[in-house]
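Table S5 (text form). Sequence records supplied for joint modeling of the two-component complex.
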Amino acid sequence: MLKMTHLQKVYRTHLIETYALRDFSINVREGEFVAVTGPSGSGKTTFLNIAGLLEEFTGGEYRLDGVDVHGLDDNARSRLRNEKIGFIFQGFNLIPDLNLFDNVDVPLRYRGYGTAERKQRIEESLGRVGLASRMKHYPSELSGGQQQRVAIARALAGSPRLLLADEPTGNLDSLMARGVMELLEEINRQGTTIVMVTHDPELAARAHRNVHVIDGQVTDFDDEPKLRREPGIGSRESLQAESVSP
Amino acid sequence: MEIRPIFSALMRSKVSMILIGLQVALTLAIVCNALFIISERLDRMNRPSGMNETDTFWLGSTGFGQNFDAKSVQQADLQLLRSLPGVAAATSVISVPMSQGGWSTGVSLQPNQRTSTASTAMYMVDAQGLSAYGVKLVEGRDFKPEEVVFRSMNDRGIPVSVIITRALADRLFPEGGALGKQVYYDNEGPPSTIVGIVERAQTPWLSADFIENSTFVPAFIPYGSFTRYLVRAEPGRRDEVMKVVEQKMIEANPSRIIGRVRTIEQVRVDGYAGDRAMAIILGAVIVALLGITALGIVGMASFWVAQRTKQIGTRRALGATKFDILRYFQTENFIITTMGLLAGGVLAYALSLWLMHSFQSPRLPWYYVPVGFVCLWALGQLAVLGPALRASRVPPAVATRSV
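The corresponding structure-token record, covering 649 residues in total, follows.
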């Protein structure tokens, strides 16, 4: 689904070169739930930006759903992003002047769907996160957890193959965080690949597989996900990777 | 098109939208009416006087000394003028069109008529008069030399033969056939016969409501010792002839002063100076208003772009292309401008009505407002283009930045 090989991202000024990612390789298979962890400044967000085609890389290879994204122009990247990827941001990034319906509608309009199809998808995705009855509400009228649910609905509305989550519970209290995490797990169970950047080890532990990044390099990963019973998360089964030194 | 969600979002922040909309509305109302006034002034300024303005000039002769004889000097001056190379025609005159000073009187169809049928300007000329003015005789004949009379300021009555403009003929005799008819310029005097009709000769007064009504009279009336001469040069020789005429006139008779030598083109410029000033001032007001409106739109759009950087990045992350972002801001401006223009259209016609009632100005033609719509739409789109392009360059990675 997402395959980066020896990827490099260098920020250059006339004085210095800073490697945000160095020889970065990762292979996320379809249906996986991968957590990317690491300290601040380790390159997690740069990885997420490149994975989400928000930024370009300076070396190596990146294939998204089989498409070599190197050299794609801005329009092609936007189209690919819109069709294949759903984003969940730490700060929710809802548009405050639009109601929930219109917020979820944003990526669908860029996809070019007709009115009837957009309406159906919006209602379905808001229903999926339990907010179908609040379509006419504005983000400011919702709690943080509800706002993140709207953001998830927005990400899901276009039926993306890959969901990229950037610290999805970073701005939520533990109760709301738990609810959001359960929702993500549910979405993953229904077949959507999820890559989640987090610095929360507890959340990371609930993913199929952990990738640890330090100084722009993958320092620790678990290549083969294992299934294990996780106590403390109700009776659900979850896939969690145990970190193994490469 | 994203019109509905953009409109909904705008309704959440009404103040900015109302301010810009109001500015657009006032601009449309004022610009439409100001443009109409300018257009009216330009039409006035471009009215043909009926004269040959390109080749003609006039000059004044002021005699001094107790024995100064205006009549003999006039005869000698005209003889001299007509003998100079490059002079096509010359005559003594009291006034010319657009000079803002001259004689006028009422014309009646019956003797002792209580109210005259029409008003007219009076141009006193000799047998070369029509040729010197360069007016076009369309019916009848020119004056004969023997018809020209010498009169003092106190003499009453008008010579028996007159030539009038087509407009005056139509006014006096709407059914036609003015040529050969008799009219009265002096209730108590004998009638005058219309022996010729010229196509056009405006009065000296640019704001007169009878501006096209003029009468040519075969007479010489000196104003004390002051006489004016109108000279038409051969085509293309006016400036050359002007210099020679001034010099020769002074040489021929040193007991007078030659002055006020001016082309009829200058007379036109001076006559319409007020209209020109009005057009320039209103033009400056229009430019200033459009500039302020454009700057207002640029300022507001720039503020919105800066305020919504994160939102733009999010839209890009969700799949918007650069063109989508550009189109978003252009559409937003289009909506605001359209709302302003709808209000401005009503305001423009209301302002026109007020001008009609207060200043008797004509009604604003209907097409000014739609043309104004198109112009202000274009201005709005152009003004917002810079900020919109800036917005389109916001990178999608902004969406994941925490600050």
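Note: The two ends of chain B are 31 Å apart (CA to CA).
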